[in-house]
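Key idea: predict the complex, not the pieces.
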Amino acid sequence: MEHVLEEVLPRIEICEEECKGCGLCIHYCPPKVIEASPSLNSHGYHPAHYKGEGCIGCGICFYICPEPGAITVYMKPSKGEKR
Amino acid sequence: MSGKILKKADAFYDVYERKPGADKLTTHYCPGCGHGTLHKIIAEAIDDFGIKDRTIIISPVGCSVFAYYYFDCGNVQSAHGRAPAVATGLKRANPESIVISYQGDGDIAAIGGNNILQAANRGENITVIFVNNAIYGMTGGQMAPTTLLGQKTMTTPRGRNPHNEGYPLRLSELLSTLESPVYIERVALTDAKNVLKARKAVRKAIKCQIENKGFSMVEALSPCPSGWRATPVEARKWIEEKMMPYFKLGVYKDNTKGKEPYIPPKEEFTTSEIEKIIGIAATKGKEEVRIEPPAARYRNPAIKIAGFGGQGVLLLGEALAEGGMRAGYHVTWLPSYGPEMRGGTANCQVIISDDPIGSPLVSAPDVLIAMNRPSLDRFEPDVKKGGLIIFNSSLIDRRPQRADVEVIAIPATEIADNLGNTRVANMVVLGSYIAKTGILTKEAVISTFPIFIKRRDLIPLNEEAVQKGIDWVEG
Ligand SMILES: Cc1ncc(C[n+]2csc(CCOP(=O)(O)OP(=O)(O)O)c2C)c(N)n1
Ligand code: SF4
Ligand code: SF4
Ligand code: SF4
Ligand SMILES: [Mg+2]
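Result:
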């Protein structure tokens, strides 16, 4: 297997083209690690953008976001969980 | 490498191919709309319970009418407010299926108010997701039964006034007074805490159905930023500050613990039982093979049959359509009911065709059968050029004015009277029509009588009447 950098977990991924810029994830993220991107997506929204660090993997942004595929949350493996 | 991943559910299509337009990646909902949040909760539950292949989501009219763009499971779209009736049929016909009736507040509490009441009272084993956004979202923000007092909408520009529009309807409370429902909870799509509670409630409601316990409903107070002219975040606050004090969150009914599962007995009927029930057993085996096709100008007729209520025009149409079906044609029969039925004119529309029929409406008939004067007056102008008018000359004191149609004048009521019963005038006319056009045989027509004529002893008289009509034309 190819050597990969150890992933920083937890983290989120935002699909900018699926985001409608409603701002709910930005508002409700407890550590405030999501911001509005200054650029526009093809629908004309400022999509949400992960600041790149500080996510605590709470999953709130996922459940608060109305778009099925806009946000993916990668959590930390819990203790005892196979890596 | 990673732990749990929260991602787009399998129960959603990867690409929304059914959605028109170029964008097949995002939903059609406005930014911040609660429908999307609820969809995600439902889809996740479908995944987790492993029920994708047996779930049917019913989306009636409202912003969520297009839910079938997104959910990769069974989908049925229903008329406004009628989702609980459709759900009932689906669930009863397929007890293995998991049926989710997804309804807006206008849909469930206004036009479909009685539908949900009766389905809940029958204790149908279905799950209702009731999206209460206090407004008609889809049509641009009119008042709904759940609109709050003082709330401004398109139709309450000064705010809802209880003296004019009554008080906001609390459906969860109302349905909880019924015996049958097993689980009813009201949740709110606001902050993380409440969204997770909504998630729990939706899962519990679906589980209630999976375990065959009976009727479950989750009412979700849901933001409609567009209808409320609010930002997505403001809309969630508005729910907390305005809606929640009136629509109190909580479990209104929960009998899931003690309730024994109920699985309805399989009621399967044999073909012969069904034939007996709907009354076609008596005629079975007498099916007609199609005879020689009628002359080209009489083929594929669109027929309008009109007369007084009581002259048997609907029956005439039924015998034609059923006879046509037995002869292997495509047929439709469309009765026109209405206030006219009482004493005025009644009419029905029949199409008999070699090809599948697109619409059963007959606005320009090839054939007009007029049993009384008002019918001739009303429909004569509509008959197609080169068409056929058969009129009951016993009751109609004028001939058709049209020179571009064929005409048969037949004193049907007198002929019937001579047979001893004026009510079989319809069959006299029917006889004249099949004799003139060759569209059906006499046998094909009379083989249908046991279905339509309840009094068996009157069947010979009706057969005789058909023969008299044939004789009149051939005579
Ligand atoms: C029989 C019928 N009557 C009226 C309409 C018009 N109509 C379309 S959507 C709607 C209201 C929907 O409101 P709601 O059920 O609250 O759904 P929402 O869009 O708010 O989610 C109405 C009245 C219709 N489509 N069909
Ligand atoms: S998972 Fe929680 S902490 Fe991480 S970005 Fe989403 S809301 Fe913020
Ligand atoms: S909640 Fe979803 S749609 Fe709204 S801004 Fe965040 S990612 Fe975009
Ligand atoms: S009008 Fe309201 S309910 Fe309809 S999609 Fe927009 S926000 Fe949602
Ligand atoms: Mg609504």
